[in-house]
Amino acid sequence: MSCRTRVPLCFSAVAVLLLLFGARTEAAAPQPSADAFDQQRLAAMRPLIAEAIARGELPGCVVAIGNADGVAFLEAFGDRVVEPQRVAMTTDTVFDMASVTKPVATGTSVMRLLETGKLRLRDKVGDLLPGWGRNGKEAITVEQLLLHVGGLIPDNSVADYRDGPEKAWERIYALAPVVEPGTEFKYTDVGFMTLGRIVEVLSGKTLDRFAHDEIFAPLGMTDSGYLPAETLHERTAPTTERDGEWIVGDVHDPRAWLLGGVAGHAGLFSTAEDLARYARMMLGGGQLDGVRILSPATVREMTRGRQAAGNVRGLGWDSNSVYSRNRGELMTDRAFGHGGFTGTGLWIDPGSDLFVVFLSSRLHPDDEGTVNDLIGKIGTIACSAIQSGPSAADSAERQPRRAAETRVTLGVDALARDGFAPLVGKRVGLITNHTGVDSRARRTIDVLVDSDAVDLVRLFSPEHGPSGVLDHGGIEDGVDPESGLPFVSLYGESRKPTPEQLAGLDVLVFDIQDIGCRFYTYIATMKLAMEAAAEHGLRFVVLDRPNPIDGVTVEGPMLDRSKESFVAAHSLPVRHGMTVGELAEMFAAEEGWELDLVVVPVEGWRPASLGHETGQLWVNPSPNMRRLTAAVLYPGVGLLETTNVSVGRGTDTPFEVFGAPWIDPWEFCEALNAEGVAAVTAMPRYFTPDASKHEGKRCGGADFVVTDRRGLDAVAYGLAIARVLHELYPDDWDAGRYNRLLSCEAIRQATLDGAELAELRRLADEGVDDFLQRREAFLLYPR
After folding, report:
1. Phi, psi at residue 578, to the nearest 5°?
2. Per the database record, which ranges form the Beta-lactamase-related domain (predicted)?
3. Domains in the chain, please, with CATH?
4. What values do phi and psi take at 161, rounded to 5?
5. Which residues have a Cβ under 8 Å from the Cβ of 85 and sit 6 or more positions away?
């Protein structure tokens, strides 16, 4: 453990470091075109890198950015070697790629075998490797291994490898799944070792030779491969020490090393320029400089996003998963990439005609560096610097470019722009609250009132009232003070508009920001109003808005049959990954209503994006939903609020704080963190709510620190919390109302029976695949 102190870098020190880096930086490669990237915007990464080096997060790095035409930015920063003596970083430095091996070497090799007919994705691994398909592995397929859903252990013991490769493979063949195959995303090196073995058996070549002959040599990647030659060691970045000597040119991963340096999960060495050639090949539909490595169809199949138990993955590639912390935040939903444990990252975005290569040896010299956030920031900067579309690579083999968006056009924006067409000549009732604003923060009420084309007659309000600040039982009818229009409460004596309330109307318009969770009541209000509109022959117009916790992540459990209620209005999973417009289409079709439904869609929205990436104003959707982080946590933490715990209501950070008077903070957090849910950490704390549960009482519990909002499996975290509460405090935690929002009796009972989190997650996944198929017909935005 290092005792080195991290000292904040002052401005003058940054300036000195930048001058030093400038002296070491080699000339960048020719740009694809003079105006493809804004070089001043790209320069914004330099101080970020300087500060990270000064903090000791990495000794140095090489960054390459470009598009299908070539490299637009190539620079080296800091040092290649720190100990035993400093050596400056250069752009031709060779790096241990660690897990970037998985897609670039192993995954691409598997796809070469696929397109030559040597294997199929649906093939059972046991049929390709005799003796492997036993002990519960009989049905595991090649595709499941590529997606990390084969149920295999992430890493078996290093001791299994110490008796040589032959014995190591005997032990791998004898392994049993740790979870039921196909039910859970479990990132696994063992799965990719197995894929590497498949390449060797089917090709008759060792993995390193096959990758060299089929990928690296044809692409001119002259410095790439396994077991780098001694001639490359002089410019290879060291990692850590092994047996008292610095590791230079040998793979850092201990299992790959014990297998002789060649494995499916690690062992590749490469440079930034070589990886740029690989990336350009992928952006070019499988071809570079007249040499074809993969067909366009193979590239599309390899890189398209697939649901992998709540994560979006390609075949060997990451797309939007718990490991996407190093992904640029402005990349399109077609981006794919991967990171490596040693400090490497490669992201390729056909939607923006962009690649980003980041190579460092973060483990040198003290085994303590960290670079994932830095890689993600550089990817975001690269996206923001794009200022021209595809050029030389435009062809039928290239997929069309989608520029990174800055601000989404909301449904209300589009409605006004297009002259309020669905409302012209109609008497309009508007269901809205304080979240109903346009992109300039004007209330939708005022947008409609100020239009000569619209006759706005009446307002309707959901839970929390028109201003969104009421947090009690019923909401009374009233008058909007600014427009003078009457508003009718849909959270009072009736939650469905009555015939009297609809009298004199031709159209109902719905414009409220949802947060993407089944038990958030605004979608129930919409559904009841749609039903009333169908019964009375009214048109129903939905002004769509982005789902702030993204439109791709779906987490069960599904609603138990016949459990519909105001907090469970339709057969949905807890986190549905849909917009209100898409939900409206589903409600109308599946309820069989004869309804004149019009959805005014948003424009420029990437379903993989989170709320902060839309360019839109954050408005608290309800009194206790005060930050995007709270919204991301809510589908899980919110499940517990019907029990006798505080979920932070009455504090400054609802749903980010959790506790009860009978919880020991250290005991609780230690147990919860041991559940292993990625992207969030529980930090012990005491707090005293000034409202709601345990008002005025000192509660022990946790702050939930979300380290990656995109990567959090919120519902799984909620299930883990419930499991820990029952395990530690069975006599204190009252689970009598736990099923109120969960609405899944199987999970409630399994929790009380002491089931492990893996079993609870398996139960939560039941029926989700069927929902995804149902959902497909109603999606308005490409997933």
Report:
1. -130, 160
2. 48-374
3. 95-384 (3.40.710.10), 411-617 (3.40.50.12170), 628-752 (3.90.1150.140)
4. -105, -5
5. none
